[in-house]
């Protein structure tokens, strides 16, 4: 029978509570998707910091859990059939947790929610991340304006798509769902961390700013944004 001790990742990050979901993450926009979902569902979890400053993500133990060396990842001791399940990719984890808890992926809206989750995974996240690199990080030193403009324009376009979808809705697919937990942390990062809202047309949006504030007002969101706690 497979137990948590059979997974090498538990040797580098020993479980404090081996009977609950083990979360390996950082409070980044991708990382907090999962901690927010865990908080919203009330699922017990044990959050472990994967310290990029120490290259934890490149350690053999972490790579045994996620060969793509990205956070977040989870190890659920009570997976399907009662066997431990290791899982990476934030979107896949959100779907798994929604199915496990029976929450935030309504049966009647399942595929609408998933399509907006994929909108974030394939569009919003990668494009905002690239804009952040060229606007806020080392890419801002590149003199050629074309890379930054490409991602700025695409970020603005995606924000307009989202703004249109939110017309007359509090949440992107109707009910609050895992799609919102995926999208809103990236909006917060674009506006507050990358400081790129103004150049991406944030001030012209009719619905997105209030949507982000509704999201941030949720107590479970506020708790999830702080996980895993840094020492």
TrEMBL record:
Residues 18-105 form the GST N-terminal domain. It holds the Pfam family GST_C_2. CDD domains: GST_C_Ure2p_like, GST_N_Ure2p_like. InterPro entries: Glutathione-S-Trfase_C-like, Glutathione-S-Trfase_C_sf, Glutathione_S-Trfase, Glutathione_S-Trfase_N, Thioredoxin-like_sf. PROSITE patterns: GST_CTER, GST_NTER. It comes from the Bacteria. Residues 106-231 form the GST C-terminal domain. This is GST-like protein.
